[in-house]
């Protein structure tokens, strides 16, 4: 397992996961483990998606956040993703097994929330609690429809330029002061490294075909399974009141479909609630996981 340094209490790590050179971020030390799965979009990673929240939680937990396969972060772009988003669940399983993590809280944002929920459904004995953050993917898998938004078009229209990256981030993060040149540069470097955009294209095309597959489409339907899971697995949902990507109205429609899930609505926060309000979200998670 390789090690590398980074600022702000976050530690850069490398590990071979089922033969794939996988990058992940780690923070904290002693304490319960939280596994974080970042959302989508070119250049997304454990650090860019979860870094601020990891730092907020590091005094109380050991937190790990892998870069997904499919052209994300620094993880090997050659990793095959024939089943698109569903391959993220396989990666999560292999990742926690490689790190010998037995029981933990799982957390995911956006498409990462779907991966977290799907992992918990398939491995309930491993998951102690679950935290889901602003997820149109889960809304859609629960049968909720939402028309395309400008934020969605900005994400899907990324063309590899810094200007397009900034526009995409403005659809994910409400607090413009959080969209720093450093963040843009980091995501740009990830998104445009050799092979990344091609890997992302393969990942997205495979994901888009899942609902047409007679077998795999069943894994994308959470209408019955997620309410049953959250009846027995303690779960919270955190949603930004100003989310321009997964609209608050989508979350409001989802809320009654998951009656055993506590929804937390965060003011002045967008799709990456954990980037806009890391301390607020961190306090909610700390109280939820530790019970205090």
Describe the protein.
The protein is an alpha/beta fold and 292 residues long. It is built from 12 helices and 9 strands. It has helices at 46-57, 86-98, 111-122, 136-141, 150-156, 162-170, 181-191, 196-208, 225-232, 248-254, 273-276, 278-290; strands spanning 2-5, 11-17, 20-28, 33-37, 62-66, 104-109, 127-133, 235-240, 262-266. A 9-stranded mixed sheet has the order 1-2-3-5-4-6-7-8-9. Strand 6 (104-109), helix 3 (111-122) and strand 7 (127-133) form a beta-alpha-beta unit. It is globular, with a radius of gyration of 17 Å. The model is unreliable at 1-7 (pLDDT under 50).
Write the layout of secondary structure elements.
Blueprint: E1 2-5, E2 11-17, E3 20-28, E4 33-37, H1 46-57, E5 62-66, H2 86-98, E6 104-109, H3 111-122, E7 127-133, H4 136-141, H5 150-156, H6 162-170, H7 181-191, H8 196-208, H9 225-232, E8 235-240, H10 248-254, E9 262-266, H11 273-276, H12 278-290
Parallel strand pairs: 4-5, 4-6, 6-7, 7-8, 8-9
Antiparallel strand pairs: 1-2, 2-3, 3-5
Features:
292 residues; alpha/beta; Rossmann fold; 12 helices; 9 strands; 18% strand
Radius of gyration: 17 Å
Q: Helical region count?
A: 12
Number of strands: 9
The coarse silhouette is globular
Mean pLDDT figure: 95
CATH topology name, in short, is Rossmann fold
Please identify the oligomeric state: single chain
Topology as a string of helices (H) and strands (E): EEEEHEHEHEHHHHHHEHEHH
β-strand amount? 15-25%
Largest sheet: 9 strands, mixed
Domain module count: 1
Named CATH architecture: 3-Layer(aba) Sandwich
Query: Could you say which structural class the secondary elements and strand pairing correspond to?
Result: alpha/beta
Distance between the termini: 34 Å
The named CATH superfamily: Alpha/Beta hydrolase fold, catalytic domain
Q: Please identify the top-level CATH class.
A: Alpha Beta
Strand order of the largest sheet: 1-2-3-5-4-6-7-8-9
The share of residues in helices is 25-40%
Q: Residue ranges: pLDDT <50 for 5 or more in a row?
A: 1-7
């Amino acid at each position: 397992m390789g090690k590398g340094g980074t600022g702000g209490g976050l530690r850069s790590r490398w590990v071979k996961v089922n033969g794939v050179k996988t990058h992940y971020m780690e923070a904290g030390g002693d304490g319960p483990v939280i596994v974080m799965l970042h959302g989508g979009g070119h250049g997304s990673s454990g650090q860019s998606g979860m870094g601020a929240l990891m730092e907020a939680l590091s005094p109380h937990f050991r937190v790990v956040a892998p870069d997904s396969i499919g052209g994300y972060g620094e993880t090997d772009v050659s990793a095959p993703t024939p089943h698109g988003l569903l391959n993220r669940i396989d990666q999560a399983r292999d990742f926690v097994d490689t790190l010998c993590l037995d029981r933990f809280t799982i957390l995911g944002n956006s498409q990462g929330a779907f991966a977290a929920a799907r992992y918990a459904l398939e491995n309930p004995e491993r998951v102690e609690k679950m935290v889901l953050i602003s997820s149109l993917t889960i809304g859609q898998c629960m049968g909720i429809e939402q028309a395309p938004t400008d934020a969605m078009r900005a994400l899907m229209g990324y063309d590899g330029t810094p200007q397009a990256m900034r526009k995409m981030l403005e659809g994910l993060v409400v607090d413009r002061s959080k969209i720093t040149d450093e963040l843009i540069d980091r995501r740009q470097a990830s998104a445009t490294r050799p092979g990344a955009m091609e890997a992302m294209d393969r990942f997205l095309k495979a994901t888009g075909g899942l609902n047409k597959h007679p077998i795999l489409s069943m894994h994308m339907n959470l209408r019955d399974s997620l309410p049953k899971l959250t009846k027995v697995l303690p779960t919270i949902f955190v949603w930004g009141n100003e989310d321009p990507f997964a609209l608050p109205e989508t979350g409001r429609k989802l809320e009654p479909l998951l009656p055993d899930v506590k929804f937390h609505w965060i003011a002045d926060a967008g799709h990456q609630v954990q980037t806009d309000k890391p301390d607020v979200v961190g306090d909610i998670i700390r109280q939820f996981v530790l019970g205090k």
